[in-house]
Amino acid sequence: MAVLASFGRFDVVFVAYAPFASDRNNDRNNVKEDGLMVRAGEVEHGERIAENAESVWNWSSPAGRVRATRRAALIARAAELTSGMHVLELGCGTGLFTERFAASGAKVHAIDISNDLLTQARERSLGDDVVFALDDAENLSFADDSFDAVVGSSVLHHLDLECALHEAVRVLTPGGRMAFAEPNMANPQIALQRSVPAFRRWAGESPEETAFFRWRLARRLRRSGFVDIRIQPFDFLHPFVPESLIPVVRGIGRVVEQLPLVREIAGSLLISARRGEEGAKFSEDHERSVRDMPAPRS
Prior knowledge:
The protein is α/β, with parallel strands linked by helices. It is built from eleven helices and nine strands. Helix 3 crosses helix 4 and helix 6 packs across helix 11.
């Protein structure tokens, strides 16, 4: 049986390997901006796409809007967002998902490393319970145990995963939850886009982007101090599906998401976990290992 899964701008049947972001530290191009350590490539990417970011991210088409609504609902449910919770959103971009997270009644502190994208996000005027701020997900400015949940959409694959998970554990309250939706490296098209430079450039991706295999990601989460880890493949609705066909394709996709093996090539991964009792210890051990590292050669 042949099953086609395509996400982005073309259909392929190709599987390849691309490293985790944390395996590429030697290739980082870091700059200091407003006291934050951020990647120059990501900041430049945000500036370049700011005017039509949601189109670049494929959220503006009819199918894209359906996907965004469902994705936000899945993340909010996995994070157990409720009224009054203090929530940190990483990589908020234009605030598209922030608006949906805030609808839960939670108090959302949404951060990004791109001032250009944050300018658009602030134009949404989401009220006093939503704060947009420039910050670095790999070196957060918040105190320990500050948030009941940490959430985000398509952001972890831009980051040094070890640093980002360490920071998420650190700022979560004991028992706090994290929930993210990220690209699935087992999806043929995503594997091609992440692994072949020519396709990466054509797809308009930033230089730091990668994707995740769910079994490897689960190990990373466990080592970082998370427990109750769930990673579910989902999303077979291509953003370029014609509006008239969305109900049919969406219905078929929901069925395929329940099929063993076949579901593994879905376009996205829904990731959720809880900070375990050992979370603080993992965070302290990580900080100690970073302090003990030799200074980089100039």
